[in-house]
């Protein structure tokens, strides 16, 4: 009797690791790769589009990591998960009880074959679905802490909690951190900020804009509108990922309400409305 064909998505931000995973999967005739993804945002879109049975999910990725992908998709729509990780031993022990399996890089063919056997066994008993529920509960307990941004001003050092930030825009060699009616200049690149700010709260919607997703009121064709009326440009190449992230909804941290009154430093046209495609 022929085996059920499993539809799989492979997610890893390292091209060589992704290619190696696909080569290992090619040895299994009952697996069809329906999507390869280089980041968490693309993984969210692929799961929504293809409804796979199985996802090989890298844990450590910039902006939207593997655990955040699980949080945003939710237990009702999450396929069976095999984590692919270089995580420390403690994290592996904690999550192996909830994932169908985990693979530690570099992945060899024998260990991969064992993971595929486990996937098939647990799908046949319905255990994979139960483990997704367990994983969701576990992730809810270990949401990452968000350290404050430390900004030097003429008056001294200011510590800004991430939950207070509305959005961040590039300003020459600085990043302008907008908090209510005030803005603070931080000498740090947008790429560095995007890497260290929590993807549970922040979205990079343009090469020059990072926004607190809890402040977003609506998404228009080429711009986000915040609760206070600020309009921020969304680049064409990031729009699909922004749409997927906003549809999935915020998963961590308290949602702040709209701020009263217009912002003194409002950016009516949004930074970079032209520029990044």
Report what the structure shows.
The chain is built from 8 helices and 15 strands. It has 2 domains: 6-141, Response regulator (Rossmann fold, 3-Layer(aba) Sandwich); 149-248, LytTr DNA-binding domain (OB fold (Dihydrolipoamide Acetyltransferase, E2P), Beta Barrel). Helix 3 links the parallel strand 3 (54-58) and strand 4 (80-85). Residues 251-275 have low confidence and may be disordered. The chain has 277 residues and is α/β, with parallel strands linked by helices. The protein has helices spanning 15-25, 40-50, 66-73, 89-96, 109-125, 127-141, 190-196, 236-248; strands at residues 6-11, 31-37, 54-58, 80-85, 101-104, 149-153, 156-160, 167-171, 174-179, 182-186, 202-206, 209-212, 216-219, 223-226, 231-233. Strands 2-1-3-4-5 form a 5-stranded parallel sheet, with helices on both faces.
In short:
The chain is 32% helix and 27% strand.
- The CATH topology of the largest domain is given as Rossmann fold
H/E topology pattern: EHEHEHEHEHHEEEEEHEEEEEH
Distance between the termini: 51 Å
Q: Going across the major beta sheet, what is the strand order?
A: 2-1-3-4-5
Radius of gyration: 21 Å
Largest β-sheet summary = 5 strands, parallel
Please give the domain count: 2
Helix content: 25-40%
Strand element count: 15
Please indicate the percent range of residues in DSSP E strands (runs of 2 or more): 25-35%
Mean pLDDT comes to 80
Coarse shape: elongated
Q: What is the topology?
A:
Blueprint lengths: L5 E6 L3 H11 L5 E7 L2 H11 L3 E5 L7 H8 L6 E6 L3 H8 L4 E4 L4 H17 L1 H15 L7 E5 L2 E5 L6 E5 L2 E6 L2 E5 L3 H7 L5 E5 L2 E4 L3 E4 L3 E4 L4 E3 L2 H13 L29
Parallel strand pairs: 1-2, 1-3, 3-4, 4-5
Antiparallel strand pairs: 6-7, 8-9, 8-12, 9-10, 11-12, 13-14, 14-15
Helix pairs in contact: 2-3, 2-8
